[in-house]
Amino acid sequence: GKLYFTEIFANQVHEYTVETGAFRVIRRDSGGSNGMAFDSRKRLVMCEMLGKRIIRRELDGTIVPLWQADHEGKGGPNDVVVSSSGNTYFTMPRHKCVYRITEDGKVVVFISDIAGINGVMLSLDEKTLFVTEYKNRKIHVFPINEKQGIVGAGNVFAQIHTEGTEHGADGMAIDDQDQLYVACLGGIWIFDTEGQQVGLIALPGEKVTNCAFAGDDFKTLYITTQQGLFCAIRKEQE
Fold first, then answer.
1. 44 touches 36 (CB < 8 A)
2. Phi/psi of residue 127, each to 5°?
3. Are 174 and 181 contacting, i.e. CB atoms less than 8 angstroms apart?
4. Quick one: average pLDDT of 24-31?
5. Helix and strand numbers, DSSP H then E, in the chain
6. In sequence order, which residues have a C-beta less than 8 Å from that of residue 143 and are 6 or more positions away?
7. Average model confidence (pLDDT) for the chain?
8. What pairs with residue 101 in β-bridges?
9. Strand partners, 130
10. How many CA atoms lie within 13 A of 105 on its CB side?
11. 8-17: which pairs have CB atoms within 8 A and are 24 or more residues apart?
12. Least packed by Cβ within 10 Å: which of 3, 13, 54, 81?
């Protein structure tokens, strides 16, 4: 019943209570937190883009560092997804990489050499990892095994074609049919399991940054943009 979203350069993380419409700040001085994801224990994992680290917010509000960049400059982590087994996957655009943090804290480079890497998402069965290439508006796909790593060649899953150049392919969400929802300039692009576009939630002029489904029915999609917060309700199929 609560939605969490970040305000990067204001260094704040917000909580929105759906039932009451109330907003409150749950974290200040957030290190420029960007992408976030819940783990299986409902703890919130955050990418501190300016702090250059990955942290986890415990249920009591305690902050636990999971990873810290060992450099000055070169940007910080952008987006994150956590598997049911506890593996954390996060993107580092300046490194052109996806890193994985295992449940026991081991950090490895999982995917490398994708310039402009940005969003990251797992398929429902967690055997496929999707990443967005921001500027070129491409979505790459990799077959994975949680224990073995990458188990096959990656390829371009889909590409978004839209007018305007000021904002690229960003965060993603997966619905109950394994359809991929991708945030980009002007809306949310929807792709089926074969990479074919099957829908568009149009938000003209909006620089759309991320999206997430609410609850277990996958009917409500919350969407963040650089300008605001939106909600889309999926209609029942006839």
1. yes
2. -105, 0
3. yes
4. 96
5. 0, 21
6. 127, 128, 150, 151, 152, 154
7. 94
8. 88, 107
9. 121, 141
10. 7
11. 8/32, 8/33, 8/34, 8/49, 8/50, 11/50, 13/46, 16/229
12. 3
Residue in 37, 102, 91 with CA at minimum distance from that of residue 69: 91
Contact 224, 211 (CB under 8 A): yes
Listed residue (192, 167, 187) closest to 230, CA to CA = 187
83 φ/ψ angles, rounded to the nearest 5 degrees = -80, 165
Confidence category of residue 180, pLDDT binned at 50, 70, 90? very high
**DSSP β-bridge partners for residue 156:** 140
Cα(78)–Cα(45) distance, rounded to whole angstroms? 12
Quickly state the pLDDT bin for 151 (edges 50, 70, 90): confident
pLDDT of residue 238: 47
Region at 164 (left for phi over 0; alpha for psi -120 to 50; beta for the rest): left
**Residue reference for tokens 């919350």:** 222
Burial per residue of 193-216, b for 16 or more beta-carbon CB atoms within 10 angstroms, e otherwise: eeeeeeeebebeebbbbbbbbeee
Residue 122 tokens, joined: 């797992």
Count of beta carbons in the 10 Å neighbourhood of residue 234: 15
Question: Which two tokens mark 147?
Answer: 């224990």
Distance from chain centroid for Cα 149: 20
